[in-house]
Design brief:
Layout lengths: L3 E6 L2 E5 L8 E5 L4 E9 L2 E6 L12 E7 L1 E4 L7 E2 L6 H8 L18 E5 L6 E2 L4 E6 L5 E5 L4 E6 L3 E3 L6 E5 L2 E5 L3 E4 L8 E3 L10 H6 L7 E5 L6 H11 L4 E7 L3 H10 L16 E6 L5 H20 L3 E7 L1 H14 L13 H9 L3 E4 L5 E10 L9 H9 L2 E2 L4 H5 L12 E2 L2 H12 L3 H25 L6 H18 L13 H23 L4 H4 L2 H8 L1 H4 L7 H20 L1
Helix pairs in contact: 5-6, 7-8, 11-12, 11-13, 12-13, 13-17
């Protein structure tokens, strides 16, 4: 006898006669055939989390087991696509059913009818192991999809290269468990990390084209990043910039519980964006997962696991993947609602006691790895956090801070003063400075971190001087302190502030960033030495030179770096003439 529904409490359904069901097993619930997942079994009672609207369900209806855990279908057709939180294709659903997802449409995901041009990479008699690539498909203009074996075995039959659908068997293996068929896809349970051969140290920079990130608060490939910020501080915009300009091979963007109009903007804008690294559309290397705030909370809770599993799949192919989760606060709210329905004892602010461990489990799936097939790949997780009222001491932000190595706190004052990105350099940090130091030296031959630290000290001194300035006014400051304020403004406005609407400044290659940093550092050294040598601040201050340095981000093109030599020479000649006049 199949299990039958006993009680219904929002997205949580209790079934009786369910002793044979297994934890994390995926089930079909009721006559509507809603998708659900078993989250607890106690005797003959099972608690099921339903990923669809439960309106219309009634007690006494059957629950049918699928025999496998909540899984995603991994194969060609993922890229350039838009899915909901449990991997159902939104565009296809819209074409069939309209603007809203109806109940009971089942486990529809990838297109089973489309034919793909497959190039076979194995021959009869070959020994292959888990993770080995047995075929490739040029899925988009820029990304080669690599089909990987889920078994160890010997190839006993293989088809020739040609056009095949997802369900076609192209390789047969003889394994210890018997004969296995390899198709164009595989399933993987979303809550189980995919295996790797070796965890590697994080030593490569994720180039973003954003100066505050690439120099002051660097992100490592395979790293973990939190972007907390109140409403209107630019979390979504910053993630869009990272998606478009970072040098990751694959972008996965998860809109987790966001407002419908924001996700509509993402769905409309992303297909129009051009990837500066390839010149093709950004969607050629992008997967969108949209789970808006009006969708069932259970599917919202599952969406980040769906996203990270797809990310690991492309990592296993040897790609560097950047996953954007916007926002983990909405995911935590879904966790809190489900926990309340389950009558679990709440912890701080009503969140479940296991909030911290769930966040850690998610972020720990990031990293830089040697895969089973010997290739190298990484998953970088960039999670936005939306603390109520901008309070960074609330539970989601605090627990996220413990799980990540880069904390990019967005500041409302900076955002409202149009300083973009509105990252507060005093409250933010990156733990990758030491590990990426050798990357900068190898690429440029310059100790960028040492220059960065020196300029960061200027910003710290500026904060101290500002507190004095409020009490005594600028006239009471020493010449050295006045100069520090000028240099700090050069750093803030000339370097850290970036214009997303300017064609030159919206994306800046690392080489130009370093040249800009050297110019500001050059001015700092010469101006500080001039004051030590007796030049007064009044004689030293040159508004034209300071303005020229501030505007270099606009006036010097990204591919015309020779002009920085002229600017550095101008700075040196100016201070030589000043000190010559004193002597």
């Amino acid at each position: 006898m199949n299990p039958i529904i006993k009680t219904i409490n929002g997205p949580v359904v209790t079934a009786k006669n369910a002793g044979k069901l297994k934890i994390r097993e995926m089930v079909s619930v009721g006559k509507l055939k809603l998708i659900g997942e078993v989250i607890s079994v106690e005797g003959e009672l099972a608690t099921i989390e339903v990923y669809e609207d439960t309106s219309g369900l009634s007690s006494g209806e059957e629950v049918i087991s699928t025999g496998r855990p909540l899984s995603v279908k991994l194969g060609p057709g993922l890229l350039k696509n838009m899915f909901d939180g449990i991997e159902r294709p939104l565009l296809k659903i819209q074409d069939k059913h309209g603007a809203f997802i109806p109940q009971g449409i089942g486990f529809e995901n990838l297109d089973d009818e489309k034919k793909w041009d497959v190039e076979i990479k194995v021959s009869k008699g070959d020994q292959i192991h888990k993770g080995d690539i047995y075929a490739t498909i040029m899925e988009t203009k820029t990304i080669e999809h690599r089909l990987m074996s889920s078994f160890d075995g010997t190839v006993i039959d293989v088809k020739a290269s040609g056009s095949y659908t997802l369900e076609d068997t192209i390789v047969k293996l003889s394994t210890k468990e018997g004969e296995k068929e390899l198709k164009l896809y595989q399933y993987w349970p979303v809550r189980v990390p995919r295996p790797v051969k070796k965890i590697r140290p994080l030593e490569l920079l994720l180039n973003t084209g954003q100066r505050v990130l690439d120099i002051f608060l660097p992100i490592a490939k395979g790293g973990t990043v939190a972007i907390p910020g109140g409403f209107g501080t630019g979390k979504t915009m910053l993630q869009h910039q990272l998606a478009q300009y970072s040098d990751a091979d694959i972008i996965i963007y998860i809109g987790c519980g966001e407002r419908g109009n924001e996700m509509t903007q993402v769905l409309e804008e992303f297909p129009e964006l051009i990837d500066p690294n390839t010149g093709y559309g950004l969607m050629e290397r992008t997967i969108l997962i949209a789970n808006t705030s009006n969708m069932p909370v259970a599917a919202r809770e599952a969406s980040i696991y769906t996203g990270i599993t797809i990310a690991e799949y492309f990592r296993d192919m040897g790609y560097h993947v950047a996953l954007m989760a916007d926002s983990t606060s909405r995911w935590a709210e879904a966790l809190r609602e489900i926990s309340g329905r389950l009558e679990e004892i709440p912890a701080e602010e009503g969140y479940p006691a296991y909030l911290g461990s769930r966040l850690s489990q998610f972020y720990e799936r990031a990293g830089y790895f040697t895969n089973l097939n010997g290739s190298e790949g990484s998953v970088t997780i960039i999670g936005a956090v939306s603390p109520s009222g901008g309070d960074f001491s609330e539970p989601v932000t605090e627990n996220t801070r413990r799980s990540v190595n880069v904390f990019l706190g967005l500041d409302r004052k900076l955002a409202y003063s149009r300083h973009y990105p509105a990252i507060n350099w005093l409250t933010s940090y990156s733990n990758y400075l030491d590990t990426i130091k050798s990357y900068y030296i190898e690429k440029t031959g310059i100790d960028i971190i040492a220059i960065r630290n020196e300029l960061m000290n200027v910003l710290l001194k500026e904060e101290e001087i500002k507190s004095i300035l409020m009490l005594v006014g600028k006239d009471a400051l020493s010449d050295s302190q006045k100069n520090i304020l000028d240099v700090a403004e050069l750093i803030r406005v000339g370097f850290l502030q970036q214009n997303a609407y300017n064609d030159i400044d919206k994306y800046v290659p690392l080489e130009k960033q370093i040249r800009m940093l050297e110019v500001i550092n050059n001015y700092l050294k010469h101006s500080s030495n001039a004051i030590k040598n007796g030049v007064s601040y009044k004689d030293l201050y040159n508004s034209n030179l300071i303005n020229e340095i501030t505007q270099m981000k606009y006036t010097i093109a990204n591919d015309n770096l020779e002009k920085f030599i002229n600017l550095n020479n101008e700075i040196e000649n100016y201070f030589i003439s000043l000190e010559g006049g004193i002597n």
